[in-house]
Amino acid sequence: MTDDNTTVEAVGKITEALETVERARGHLYSFHQLTGTADFQLGDAVNLLREAGHTEMADRLERDLVGRNVIPGHWTFQIMEEYDDTYWSVFRAFEREAREALTDGRRHLHEAGLKQQRRTHGHPDHDAGPVRDAQFDQADFGQTG
Q1: Model confidence over 52-104: pLDDT tens digits?
Q2: DSSP 3-state assignment of 5?
Q3: What are the φ and ψ backbone dihedral angles of 64, each rounded to 5 degrees?
Q4: pTM here?
Q5: DSSP track, 15-44
Q6: Paired residues of 71 in beta bridges
Q7: CA dist 25 → 13, 19, 89, 96, 140 (Å)
Q8: Residue 138 pLDDT greater than 50, yes or no
Q9: Under 8 Å between Cβ of 19 and 110
């Protein structure tokens, strides 16, 4: 394990990038759910158009838009699966590998260092926290006192 500041910063940047990817993945899930909801809403509209006697418009919408691929050959769930399999899971594996190889698997070392710097030592609302926080040694972050 390497304890130098540059290594901690580099691993922190990998983790920060993964956190951004996690947010992007969440937006992808929103895209999936919103698109699916819209498709069902469109189906309801098709039924109402038929009920109102607008069968030609209803037939065209049902044929050309309800259940349509959002990109050639793919519904949104397939886009999500491909993202997970080809990007997200690989990113997570590299982030874990970097942490395990370079920081003994410890997560958020940069933030742990910031917590030590910014908290008021001895204040009941600023204690070190759970055991894993308490195990953080300022020397791991290049701090002295």
Answers
A1: 999 999 999 999 999 999 999 999 999 999 999 999 999 999 999 999 999 99
A2: helix
A3: -100, -15
A4: 0.76
A5: HHHHHHHHHHHHHHHHHHHHHHHHHHHHHH
A6: 74
A7: 18, 10, 11, 18, 32
A8: no
A9: no
